[in-house]
Every structure is written in structure tokens, then in C-alpha cells.
């Protein structure tokens, strides 16, 4: 069974500061990993995904994430936070089996202080 | 705008009632996924349909059912509603049938309140 752990439910940073949102996964097969963002009163939007190949993945809005197999992690980072980054962020894992599905973490709310 | 539409946006109903949530996928997408988002359970996958056929099943209660019609729109039926069914229900769509490969595009959700 797959699972995702996102430690903490809320992260607060100052505008211009580094954003680091942590995600650890558990999977019995090589995982596909995703980060989604949810702005208030909206559906989820894909930020980036890791399938195979390069372990550093670049996404939209300046975000990137690095797949570290030895640490079973897929942390999301952005060098400089912007006020518009305030949202909820979800890490998700999937396999490629016949009944593959996305398993989401609990989500982390990011606040950005002026 | 993801191109996925969901109706209604809000729904308030009483315990024991039955409701139907509707989803229209993006043009060209064959897969439809249903998710439930609540404060205590987080975001949970319920069920997936691909080109009219059930493809994958998650934590969907027996009181819940879904179907995908020939025009590819989907409906999620919730019956014998309980207070705990109050949640945000999302529909997502993708071109292909394998969840991990194809990007899922999410609709804005239907907020269900059971009183």
C-alpha cells in the first residue's frame, strides 16, 4: 500500500524567503510523485511530477522538487516566496498498476507574511 | 479554469436524503475521477471511470455510486446521507486511464452540507 506523510499542517514564511514543504512517501514499487496546489475556493492544480529520469523536477510558478530514493522524500522548494504562493499544497503518490490511483497527503497550508 | 465543470456548486440537504453530483470532463478526456475532501479524512480517492467503464475503486462507501455516460459526463450518487458525508466533492478528468501517467485536471468542487 502507498502512503504519503506531510509533516505539520501549516508553514509560514516571509515574502522573499525560501519555501520548503516536506513530503515523505511509502511505496512497494517505484513511485510516481506529484505536488498539487489548491488556492482558496478552487480545485487542485498540478505543480510538478516525478516519473523517471532526472531526480530534480521543475514545475510551474518557480517551484521545484527533488526525488531522493534513499530518504523516501520528495520535498517541494521555491527560492523566494511570493504573496500569491499562499495556498494549500498536497503531495501525492501513485503506481502504474492496473488499478493505479493517486494517494494524497493531508496537505500543508502555506502562509506568506509581507 | 481547468475545463472541468461540476454542478451544483453548493448543496444543502438533510440526513437520510439522496443527492446527485454532476461532472463534465474536459473536452477529449476519457477518464473521470471522484474525490472527497473533508477536514478529518483529507483528500480521498473514491472511484474512477474510463470511457464508460469503472477503472479503479478507492474508499467509496456502499451508499455511494457513480456512473459515466456515453457523452462522458459522470454522476456521483450519494444516498442515505449522514452528517459525516458533509465534504467537498471533486471531480477530475484526464486523457488516459492510468492515474499515474496522465495529468488530472480538477473541477472547482461541490460543497455538500448534510444537516
Instruction: Please indicate the percent range of residues of chain A in DSSP E strands (runs of 2 or more).
Output: over 45%
Considering DSSP H and I runs of 4 or more, what fraction of the residues of chain A is helical? under 10%
**Biggest pleated sheet of chain B:** 7 strands, mixed
The H/E string of chain B reads EEEEEEEEEEE
Q: Topology as H/E string of chain A?
A: EEEEEEEEEEEE
What fraction strand of chain B?
Answer: over 45%
User: Which regions of chain B contain 5 or more consecutive residues with pLDDT less than 50?
Assistant: none
Biggest beta sheet summary of chain A: 6 strands, mixed
Using the alpha-carbon principal axes, give the shape of chain A: globular
Which whole number gives the mean pLDDT of chain A?
Answer: 92
Distance N terminus to C terminus of chain B? Answer: 31 Å
Radius of gyration of chain A: 14 Å
Quaternary organisation: heterodimer
Give the gist of this structure.
The complex is a heterodimer of chains A (114) and B (115). By secondary structure, chain A is mainly β.
Molecular structure report:
The complex is a heterodimer of chains A (114) and B (115). With 114 residues, chain A is mainly beta. Chain A contains no helices and 12 strands. Chain A has strands at residues 3-5, 10-14, 19-21, 24-26, 32-38, 44-50, 56-58, 64-68, 73-78, 87-94, 103-104, 108-113. In chain A, strands 2, 5, 6, 10, 11 and 12 form a 6-stranded mixed β-sheet that branches. The model of chain A has no long low-confidence stretch (mean pLDDT 92). Chain B is mainly β and 115 residues long. In chain B, 0% of the residues lie in helices and 52% in strands. Chain B has no helices and 11 strands. In chain B, strands 2, 4, 5, 6, 9, 10 and 11 form a 7-stranded mixed β-sheet that branches. A 4-stranded antiparallel β-sheet of chain B has the order 1-3-8-7, with no helix packed on it. In chain B, a hairpin with a 5-residue loop joins strand 7 (64-68) and strand 8 (74-78). Chain B is globular. The mean pLDDT of chain B is 94. The chains are: A mainly beta (114), B mainly beta (115).
Amino acid at each position: 500500500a502507498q502512503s504519503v506523510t506531510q509533516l505539520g499542517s501549516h508553514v509560514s514564511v516571509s515574502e522573499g524567503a525560501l519555501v520548503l514543504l516536506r513530503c515523505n512517501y511509502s511505496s512497494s514499487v517505484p513511485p510516481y510523485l506529484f505536488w498539487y496546489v489548491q488556492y482558496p475556493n478552487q480545485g487542485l492544480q498540478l505543480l510538478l511530477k516525478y516519473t523517471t529520469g532526472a531526480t530534480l523536477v521543475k514545475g510551474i510558478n518557480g517551484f521545484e522538487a527533488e526525488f531522493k530514493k534513499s530518504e523516501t522524500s520528495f520535498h517541494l522548494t521555491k527560492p523566494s516566496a511570493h504573496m500569491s504562493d499562499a495556498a494549500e499544497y498536497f503531495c501525492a503518490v501513485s503506481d502504474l498498476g492496473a488499478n493505479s490511483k493517486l494517494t494524497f497527503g493531508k496537505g500543508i497550508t502555506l502562509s506568506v507574511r509581507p | 479554469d481547468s475545463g472541468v465543470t461540476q454542478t451544483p456548486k453548493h448543496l444543502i440537504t438533510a440526513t437520510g436524503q439522496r443527492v446527485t453530483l454532476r461532472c463534465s470532463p474536459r473536452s477529449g478526456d476519457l477518464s473521470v475521477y471522484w474525490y472527497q475532501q473533508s477536514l478529518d479524512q483529507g483528500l480521498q480517492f473514491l472511484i474512477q471511470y474510463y470511457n464508460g467503464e469503472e477503472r479503479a475503486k478507492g474508499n467509496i462507501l456502499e451508499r455511494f455510486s457513480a456512473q459515466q455516460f456515453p457523452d462522458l459526463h459522470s454522476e456521483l450518487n450519494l444516498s442515505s446521507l449522514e452528517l459525516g458525508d458533509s465534504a467537498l466533492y471533486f471531480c477530475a478528468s484526464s486523457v488516459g486511464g492510468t492515474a499515474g501517467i496522465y495529468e488530472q485536471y480538477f473541477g472547482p468542487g461541490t460543497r455538500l452540507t448534510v444537516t
